[in-house]
Write a structure and sequence with these properties.
The complex is a heterodimer of chains A (691) and B (114). Helix content of chain A is 56%, strand content 17%. Chain A is an alpha+beta fold. Chain B has a single domain, classed as 2-Layer Sandwich (Transcription Regulator spoIIAA), CATH 3.30.750. Classes of the chains: A alpha+beta (691), B alpha/beta (114).
């Protein structure tokens, strides 16, 4: 079965129905301008009821849009009310009453009466619909049925008026329902709780407005019941509608009369109510800020500003507490220096961390600051701890300078507000921490990326020389660097370096160091001279506290001659026939001091390799790897592994070292890069000689 | 992780900074603070006593490099004393003994200032 639910259809549909109803009425009036039989009278009235019903539903849609602003709704009603009064008063002054209205006819009268009827009926319906919105406004208990009952009474009274117009014997029915309607109207007129939520200014305006409106409604009600031209036209048009109109006017009169008195009684407490709603809206504002303001300082400013509103304080300020040190975050209506000084003076006197709201309310609070001739006098100071999970993170101070103490309500409001603020501040702090962490991680990613691009992809290959490298980056990039430079057919340049510091700054210096060695290696063939030049460049470009250790060498793959120099770096290890030598020529780190001192302290060292000799270059990440007892891996362990594995493959040596270091430091995070470069030289000349 | 502690005291217009524990990139700012305080008080003759320092990283070494120029410009200096062998080795490897004075005990360093 199809069910047609008119109440929930769209606004456009409702308008279509309204126009249709109006159209049907117009056609009816066109054919039967005067009504001379009871059956036509009933049809006429029911067409009009249909029109009013559709009109009411459509107008409800319009008035429903204004419920957020009850004063504008009331004002609309007032204007329509005034127009009705004006039209009625004017027409009864200008025109005489009809002698015998039933017999008046003619097209002009029909049109005129239709227009007047439509104006009055639409105004009355708009007023009724507006009163309905006001009725439902701010209702806590469902009382929809009361209003529906009243509407039903209005309808029945109107219909019985139609009937009693035809059958005069039934007039008592009309009178009975009329009284019932009035009783229901009075009951429904007490639904005025929306008045309480208006601001003081709105209440004053409403008081003024409702007194006028109640009076005008009373006059309109009287006009609609005594004989005048308008009453005659409407009554002649439809007797039921005339009753409906007069009841709406009565409803308006009673409702606004009650509104007037209610507003009058609310007026003395309006100020206090305003303050309460200010507190509530401050809390709402803050909850919005919590999601919008992520900046700690900005949030602090908003909190101190709102504090003054919430508890009527003259000044307020916010202090964070961390390990018994206090820091002023924000101050409202008081200087930072003053607030800071007063905070220190007060917190010295009281026991911190404070767990509950502290109120210095007893007598005048005098604060004398050091280096300040003035004495600060406050009527009252309230200190509220900002607590999250029983931990006090700071304090909110609110002070009154002159008038009054803080009353209990204000203190309670401040307490609630402080709890809320504490959470908001904690939130902002956590977000900042997570942003910082994310930034750090992305920086480290960038640093690792730079490092991996700077280091060579592959080691050089030639018959006489095996080269193996091992690089294990630390989580925080350590700034290790190594590289190889082919210098003609016979010679290979090599460098290993370690930049001081960590992270992105270390990786930038690394990039610079790579550039320096790349270019110097091509033009200078003296390790010592290369390092001197590198120091020259780095001394100027590095920060005072940064330096680079490096070892640069050149190996002649044919002869096995190695020339190298060291700038503060770990020694070069040479393993020959199971004997390990640590070679440490003089040389200070790059960037430590000026050219002259650097040059005076650096020297080249030359060695001749034998067949199967191993060269080991490394950074301190290897020897300073630590175990859970904070012991270093150390040089001795390192050297022992090299000696033990020196006869095997170079790859195995590298793997063994890595395995031992990893095993040793398995319980601890690797805190520096581990870099290892191994060479094994094969003497082909010698072999040929032997054959 | 091992803690790091830094404190300073004065003797005959020479300030002595005691460093203990583990000096690396994370604890270096505390040492920087101590130097800043001394500069504020215009005390440029500083002996750093390493008795009790177990480890120093490159960032820790950087602190001395950052402040030594200021001290020397004001007729002061940073001198080191009481270093454990492995800590001294780190300084030595880098070539610090060329640029700074090292002493076995604090008194010798203080005397050197006079």
């Amino acid at each position: 079965m199809m069910k047609f639910d008119f109440v929930n259809t769209t606004r456009k549909k409702k308008l279509e129905f309204l126009i249709l109803a109006l159209f049907v009425l117009l056609i009816f009036k066109f054919f039967y301008p005067t009504i001379d039989s009871s059956i036509f009278s009933i049809i006429n009235d029911f067409l009009i009821y249909g029109l009013v019903a559709f009109g009411f539903l459509y107008i409800s849609e319009i008035t429903n849009l204004k419920i957020s602003n009850p004063i504008s709704l009331v004002l609309n009603v007032g204007i329509l009310n005034a127009v009705i009064f004006f039209l009625t008063a004017l027409s009864s002054v200008l025109f005489d009453e009809f002698e015998n209205i039933n017999e008046v006819s003619g097209i002009l009268y029909t049109i005129l009466s239709l227009v007047i009827f439509l104006i009055y009926i639409s105004f009355a319906t708009y007023i009724l619909s507006s009163l309905r919105e006001l009725f439902f406004l701010r209702q806590k208990k469902p009382s929809e049925n009361n209003f529906k009952l009243m509407l039903a009474a209005l309808v029945i009274t109107s219909i019985s008026a139609t009937i009693s117009y035809i059958y005069k014997d039934f007039q008592f029915i009309e009178k009975t329902f009329y009284v019932v309607s009035i009783v229901l109207i009075i009951i429904n007129s007490f639904k005025v709780s929306w008045i309480a939520f208006l601001s003081k200014r709105q209440k004053i305006f409403l008081l003024f407005l409702s007194s006028i409106m109640s009076g005008l409604f009373a006059l309109n009600f009287v006009f609609s019941n005594e004989t005048n031209i308008i009453e005659q036209i409407i009554f002649n048009f439809s007797s039921g509608v005339q009753v409906y109109f007069s009841l709406v006017m009565l409803y308006g009169n009673i409702y606004f009369g009650i509104v007037f008195f209610t507003t009058l009684f609310h007026l003395p407490t309006a100020g206090a109510f305003d303050q309460k709603s200010e507190e509530v809206s401050s809390l709402i504002d803050l909850s919005k800020l919590m999601t919008q303001v992520l900046d700690f300082k900005e949030l602090g400013d908003n909190i101190t500003l709102a504090t003054n509103k919430v508890c009527n304080s003259d000044s307020s300020w916010l202090v964070t507490e961390d390990n018994f040190t206090h820091e002023l975050v924000s101050a409202s209506n008081i200087g930072y220096v003053e607030a800071d000084g007063i905070t220190k003076a007060i917190l010295e006197e009281i026991e911190t961390p404070l767990n509950k709201l502290l109120s210095l309310n007893k007598k005048l609070v005098k604060v004398k600051l050091k280096n300040d001739t003035r004495t600060y006098i406050f009527q009252s100071i309230v200190i509220v701890p900002l607590k999250v999970h029983t931990k006090t993170n700071g304090y909110l101070f609110a002070v009154k300078r002159q008038k009054y103490f803080f009353d209990e309500d204000e203190k309670k409001a401040l307490g609630a507000f402080a709890d809320y603020s504490a959470i908001a501040l904690e939130n902002a702090k956590l977000i900042k921490e997570s942003i910082d962490k994310e930034r750090l991680e992305s920086e480290l990613d960038a640093a690792r990326d730079i490092q991996s691009k700077i280091l060579p992809d592959e080691t050089p290959k030639c018959d006489e020389l095996d080269v193996v490298s091992l690089f294990v980056p630390a989580f925080e990039v350590g700034g290790d660097y190594f590289d190889f430079f082919k210098l003609g057919d016979k010679k290979l340049g090599f460098v290993i370096a370690d930049v001081s510091g960590k992270g992105i700054s270390a990786s930038y210096i690394m990039a610079e160091v790579k550039g320096i060695f790349e270019s110097l290696a091509r033009v200078i063939e003296d390790p010592k001279e290369i390092l001197i030049q590198a120091n020259e460049i780095l001394k100027d470009s590095l920060d005072k506290k940064n330096f680079v250790t490096a070892l640069y060498g050149i190996i002649n793959v044919n002869s096995g001659k190695v020339t190298f120099a060291r700038a503060g770096h770990m020694p070069l290890l040479v393993c020959s026939n199971g004997i390990l030598n640590s070679l440490r020529p003089n040389g200070i780190g790059l960037g430590l001091d000026s050219s002259a001192i650097f040059r005076a302290n650096i020297e080249n060292m030359e060695i001749e390799l034998n067949n199967n000799d191993i060269l080991v270059l490394y950074t301190d990440g290897v020897t300073e790897s630590q175990n859970s007892k904070d012991e270093d891996f150390g040089e001795e362990r390192f050297k022992k592994i090299i000696i033990e594995s020196s006869n095997g493959d170079l790859d195995d040596l590298s793997k063994n070292i890595f395995k031992e270091v990893s095993l040793f430091s398995k319980d601890k995070q690797q805190h520096d890069d581990i870099t290892l470069v191994l060479f094994k030289w094969k003497n082909y000349n010698n072999m040929i000689g032997e054959v | 992780m091992v803690d790091f502690k830094v404190s300073s005291r004065g003797q005959d217009q020479v300030s002595i900074i005691d460093v203990k524990g583990y000096l690396d990139a994370h604890t270096a700012p505390e040492l920087e603070n101590e130097f800043n305080k001394l500069i504020e008080k215009e005390q440029f003759k500083v002996v750093v006593n390493f008795d009790g320092l177990n480890y120093i990283s490159s960032a820790g070494l950087g602190v001395f490099m950052a402040y030594v120029e200021t001290m020397r410009e004001h007729e002061g200096d940073i001198k080191f004393s009481n270093l454990k062998e492995d800590v001294y080795n780190i300084f030595d490897l880098l070539g610090f003994p060329v640029l700074y004075e090292f002493f076995d005990n604090e008194e010798d360093a203080i005397v050197k200032f006079k």
